[in-house]
Amino acid sequence: MITFYLQSDNKMKLFLILAIMLLTACSTNRVLIHPQVMNKQTITYVRGGPRLHSQTILQPELTILDYSYDEMLAGLTVTNTTPEPILFSEKNLKVELAKPEKLVPATVYSYEQIIEQAAEAGGSTAARVGDTAVGIGVGFIPFGGIAYTVGKLFYSLGSQDSETHQKRIDAVTFSQMNKNYLRQQTLQPGESYSGIVKIGFEDNLQEGDQIIFQVIGSDETEKFNFVCKSLPEK
Q1: Whole-prediction pTM value?
Q2: Can you give the pLDDT at residue 19?
Q3: Which 3 state secondary structure label does DSSP give 50?
Q4: Cα separation of 220 and 234, whole Å?
Q5: What is the average per-residue pLDDT within 63-87?
Q6: How far, CA to CA in Å, does 8 sit from each of 3, 13, 18, 19, 92?
Q7: Per-residue confidence at 221, pLDDT binned at 50, 70, 90?
Q8: Residue 50: its pLDDT value, please?
Q9: Which residues lie below 8 Å from residue 161, measured CB to CB, with a gap of 6+?
C-alpha cells in the first residue's frame, strides 16, 4: 500500500513537470513579428506582406518571407545609386537578435552553405518543392519571380506547425538557390539586384526580442528593425 502511494505521487509530480514544460515552451515560442519604421524609412504592403524601404545609397528593400521558431527567409533588393560599380553579397547583410539580456549574432547563410544543406537533405526535401512553390493559394507576395503565401508574419511559432514552417523554408530555399539565392554580384551604376537569404538564430524567437538587420554599403549602414510580440488572446 505504501509503495502504491509513492508511485502515484511520483507519477503526479512527473505529470506536473511535463505540463509546466509544455506550457512554457508554447508561451515562449508563440510570437508575431512586426516591422518598425525608423530613420525616414517607409513601409508598403504587397498582397498583405510588409516591405521596408530606405532611400540611402543602396535603397534597400527588405521583406520577411517566412519564418519558424529559429529560422527565417528574407528577401532583399538593393540598387546602386552611385556612379561607380559596387560589389554586393550576403556579407553585406548582418543580422542580430536583441534579447533583453544580450545581443546574439545570427547566421546569414551563404550560397555555398545552402548547397551543402541541400546535398545533406537529399531527395526527401526536394520532393516537397513542387507543393511548396506551386500550391500557394490565392494570396501571394511576388518577389524576384517567386510567389509566397501571405500571412507569414502571423504564424504561431512553437506550435505543432513549427516543423512545417521549417521544412517549407528549406524547400523554398533549395528550389530557388540557383536562380534567386543572394550571392556575390557586381552592381553597375543604376542596376538593382534581388535575392533571398536564409537566416538562423541560436535562440528561439520570444516576445520582446528585436531582430536587427544591417545592410552594409561602402560608406553607410542601414538598419531595419522587427519586434517580436505575443499572439493576441482568442
Answers
A1: 0.74
A2: 38
A3: strand
A4: 43
A5: 90
A6: 9, 9, 15, 16, 59
A7: very high
A8: 77
A9: 155
Which set of grid coordinates corresponds to residue 146? 517567386
Q: From its phi and psi, is residue 131 left (phi > 0), alpha (psi between -120 and 50) or beta?
A: alpha
Q: Phi/psi class of residue 90: alpha, beta or left (left: φ > 0; alpha: ψ in -120 to 50)?
A: alpha
Pairing of strands 93-98, 210-216: antiparallel
**Cβ neighbours of residue 52 under 8 Å, at least 6 residues apart?**
35, 37, 41, 42, 43, 61, 62, 63, 224
Amino acid at 72: M
CB 129 within 8 A of CB 41: no
| Helix ranges (DSSP H) in the chain | 2-29, 111-121, 123-126, 129-134, 162-180
Q: Which of 65, 81, 60 is nearest to 215 (CA)?
A: 60
